[in-house]
What we know:
CATH architecture: 3-Layer(aba) Sandwich
Order of helices and strands: EHEHEHEHEHEHHHE
Largest sheet: 7 strands, parallel
Mean pLDDT: 97
Shape: globular
Bound molecules: D-gluconic acid
Low-confidence stretches: none
Structural class: alpha/beta
Radius of gyration: 17 Å
Number of helices: 8
CATH topology: Rossmann fold
CATH superfamily: NAD(P)-binding Rossmann-like Domain
Amino acid sequence: MNKFSLTGKKALVTGGNRGIGLGIAQEFAQAGADLVLLARDQAALEEARGQVESTGRRVAVYSFDLNNVEEIPGMYAQIIQDSGAIDILVNNAGTICRGPAEEISLEDWNLVMTVNLTAVFVLSQAFAREHISSKRPGKIINIASLMSEAVRPGVSPYAVSKAGIKQVTKALAVEWAEYGINVNAIGPGYIRTDLNQPLQDDPEFSAWVEQRTPQGKWGMPGDIGSAAVFLASGASDFVTGQVIYVDGGWLATF
Ligand code: GCO
């Protein structure tokens, strides 16, 4: 069977209703996986379900706010009970606040760190506990960022959370390798998503992105999806603890 095939696999994608998460879900479906999409917005989830189901794969959707970290284990248990075991976990959901560091509120700091980092750790724990007890291999893919390596002014909580994603990816990869659980990350460059809509709408910023990116353009969610198929498939079984940057060359010139 094609080593890049996801046939017979089930993937849980957080933030799978739009942007990079939806791009990953669509590529996974094309590769043969069934999907579980988790996000806050029920209407957007239903729309995403329709888009992904058009490939012929099965899609379940769950409306859930990952800021409620204490409820993550129970939500994960419910998904397993409803849909069966999850083979691939994509920790994509994230949020951002932008502004001068001295003006960032404690509430915004806590929200970004909780959703972007703490929830990733807690959901990965739930996934790993189930795989360790059932002795089944699994794949975890975290979504990092250019800000895992570089920083730009105005996104301090986000950058710190994404630096944490780089390290939590390595930490969990090292501990869970013996159980056959691969943990990797993808670091997107500037991608045309809702999260970045304010930046795309800023002609000066968008021109900077195009000038600063060797390929001279913004990326698309599907660019991330194809890299995720590699990390979700048997083709990457000897890859763990890595961050793959899909950024049009942005970091290479850093
Ligand atoms: C920003 C963006 C970031 C980047 C991402 C690139 O404000 O700089 O919103 O989220 O898009 O970090 O990897």
